[in-house]
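User: quick one - fold this with guanosine-5'-monophosphate bound?
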Amino acid sequence: CGVFGVVGVTDAANFVALGLHALQHRGQEAGGIVSYHPEEGFNSARRFGYVRDNFTKQSLMETLPGALSIGHVRYSTAGSKGAAIRDVQPFFGEFSMGGAAIAHNGNITNANALRRELIERGSIFQSSSDSECIIHLMARSLQRDIPSRMEDALRRVEGAFSVVAMTRTKLIGVRDPLGVRPLVLGKIGEDGWVLSSETCALDIIGAEFIREIEPGEMVVITATDGVESSHPFRKAPSKFCIFEHVYFSRPDSIIGGRSVYETRRQIGVELAREAPVEADLVCAVPDSGTPAAIGFAHESGIPFGMGIIRNQYMGRTFIEPTEQIRNMGVRLKLNVNRALIRGKKVILVDDSVVRGTTSRKIKEMILDAGAAEVHFRIASPPTAWPCFYGVDTPQRDKLLAATMSEDEMRHHLGVDSLKFISLDGLYRAVGEAEGRKSSCPQYCDACFSGEYPVVPADKIEEGFQM
Ligand code: 5GP
Ligand code: SF4
Ligand code: MG
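Assistant: Sure. Structure tokens for the protein plus guanosine-5'-monophosphate:
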């Protein structure tokens, strides 16, 4: 998911709409915006579909006045699939000291247990979302102000959370102690402040990137007093999601002082060193494989070409919830550039193989177009474990790499060769010259290593074996 918030600008909701549009790649199912105006109180709008199809209408934006606003784009991980509008964030709660709205990116790993406990003690849940627990925990806190209630609530929550919240006067941002999901701070105009999942959404509104919110940090921001920072959680070594670098974030964002594009290009360089192959052409599976393909071509000296063309009007295939749509999706979204491919030995670079749906279809299309050989090079290690921290990977038995060896996968996909970047190679590409420290990995890489930095309590209760 993507989260975004602004304080201290006129008609803040318009800025939030733009920010969410720039974060659309983080969630395409639905979006929501809440705003506060001293005379009009809190207002909210939640809609299915793209930001640009909903939050561009003047008639809707006029209902969201005020200088303080937050928003969320949804990508369903926890909660029901094919969601109901009541699952669309931000969530809102009315407390004795006033209202508050929250938008959450990540996934709470003890949400089932929390929900049971809260329901037993009288909470009435409106949605099936794990994030709603935060509002109910806040309602039960005895603290006298909303930021302290949020602290109380989030201390009981396990897993990954980057939260953007608002009260009548404050914009609040919090990152979980491991900092699994990103969150950055920006400045706009005289006394405007912005919180965003990624820096690319600061650029769209002309805000200046100030810094990342630190793992375990809480910032409380007002237009008059600026940013107040605290560290309410126990210190822990950071475990930022390495897959944000590979796939999830936009290539024009900056993470941990590094350009995501440059990291992905470097992954391609590492891949070309680890798994060279003789060929005529390097092609990307667009868009997610493009920077790595450029790096691979550069390092190998084999020319880069646009062998697969993407229809710009389709969304990310993986994110469409059902198998059937996903299967069709590849063809609706990608087409082979036959004139370029015919008779060539082609290296295809993609960011990841999850179920193998994309790779299989693409291989068929490339061979139909008359390619002489197809070699897959994948910019992440084999995805053998599900993510429980906010990326919707399927159950283990649906993951190709959980059930097959690399050679079986190559056979299953029907390609001439298949190679994945090594975990160490990936760590080198993100700037860890020594590779992965096995005693204490510098990132979360559980979907590749099976080493989960937070015990996925709910899943273990449901029978998942680590
Ligand atoms: P597959 O078709 O193997 O199931 O999925 C792999 C494709 O899905 C890749 O092309 C990748 O770009 C895309 N993808 C989209 N969202 C995700 C995600 O959340 N996780 C992973 N691993 N891949 C994703
Ligand atoms: Fe990221 Fe994978 Fe960890 Fe999930 S399991 S947070 S996708 S590295
Ligand atoms: Mg892709």
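One thing worth noting: The domain at 261-443 is CATH 3.40.50.2020 (Rossmann fold).
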